[in-house]
Amino acid sequence: MPLDRRPDRRARLVPCGSRPGASSLPLPFTKQILARMRRAGIVAAQRGGEGGYRLGPPPGDVAVADIVRAVEGPLADVRGEPPEDLA
Question: Is 80 domain-assigned?
C-alpha cells in the first residue's frame, strides 16, 4: 500500500506490517528505514492500535533524492557539483 494522500487531503495511516513486499523484507529492517525517513521529515508516525505511517509533506514535495539521502546518507558530488545542480 503506497504512502500517499487521499483526494480529500487527509493523510491515510499505513501500518508497517502492511507494506508492499511484506514477505520479502524483514520487519525490523523496514522499521529502521521508516525511522530514518521519519527523522528526515519524509514520513510521520502515529503510535497506537490505529497508528501507522503517513507521508509528511505533499507528495510533489518529496524527491527520490530526499529518500535516498534519508536512508543512505548524502549524495556524492559529480564533477564538483551537487546532484541538484545537474539536470
Answer: no
Q: Residues 36-63: pLDDT tens digits?
A: 999 999 999 988 888 888 888 988 898 8
Which pairs count as long-range contacts for 18-22, CB under 8 Å and 24+ apart, including other chains? Answer: 18/52
Vertex 26 angle, CA 25 and 30, to 5°:
80
pTM exceeds 0.70, yes or no: no
Q: Which CATH number belongs to the domain containing residue 53 in this structure?
A: 1.10.10.10
Q: Rounded to whole angstroms, how far apart are CA atoms 48 and 39? A: 19
Instruction: Give per-residue burial for 34-54: e unless 16+ CB within 10 Å, then b.
Output: bebbeeeebbbeeeeeeebbb
Residue in the structure block whose three cell numbers are 504512502:
3
